[in-house]
Amino acid sequence: MFVKGQSGNPSGRPTIPEELKNKLKGEYEGVIDFWIRSYKDESLRWDYRDKAATNIANYAYGKPKEIVDLDLHGRVENVTVEIVKKLHEPENTST
User: Fold this and answer.
1) What is the mean pLDDT of the chain?
2) pLDDT tens across 40-51, in order?
3) 52 lies in which domain range?
4) Is 47 part of a structural domain of the chain?
5) Burial bucket for residue 38 (CB in 10 Å: 0-12, 13-18, 19+)
6) Does 58 fall in a domain?
């Protein structure tokens, strides 16, 4: 049972052992390559390809920011998803 005002996890999130962190970091490039291969593989189900594309975009450009407008009674009036970084935004090459 939840007690109002009391954390359900008072000791906080468990730490990840350093050995596991290092092992996972070593797989980073393989994961990115897997997402790219999955996105391009037309034989896969669309939802798998869509998830791969979402992961690629989130890691490359950041997750979209959601803006929620509420009225005075707390009802949701409008939800907008805004891309934080624009695709193909030209890089500033001036020094």
Assistant:
1) 78
2) 999 999 999 999
3) 18-82
4) yes
5) middle
6) yes
Q: Which of 11-15, 20-24, 85-89 has the lowest mean pLDDT?
A: 85-89
11 domain residue, yes or no: no
- In a 13 Å sphere around the CA of 36, the CA atoms on its Cβ side amount to 8
Tally the domains of the chain. Answer: 1
Residue 67, strand partner residues: 80
Residue 10 inside a domain? The answer is: no
Contacts of 34 (CB under 8 A, 6+ apart): 52
Give the C-alpha separation, 14 to 6, whole Å: 18
Mind listing the pLDDT tens digit for each residue in 30-42?
999 999 999 999 9
Long-range pairs for 81-88: beta carbons < 8 A, 24 or more residues apart: 85/61, 86/61, 87/61
As a whole number of angstroms, the distance between CA 69 and CA 65 comes to 13
* Ramachandran region, residue 81 (left: φ > 0; alpha: ψ -120 to 50; beta: rest): beta
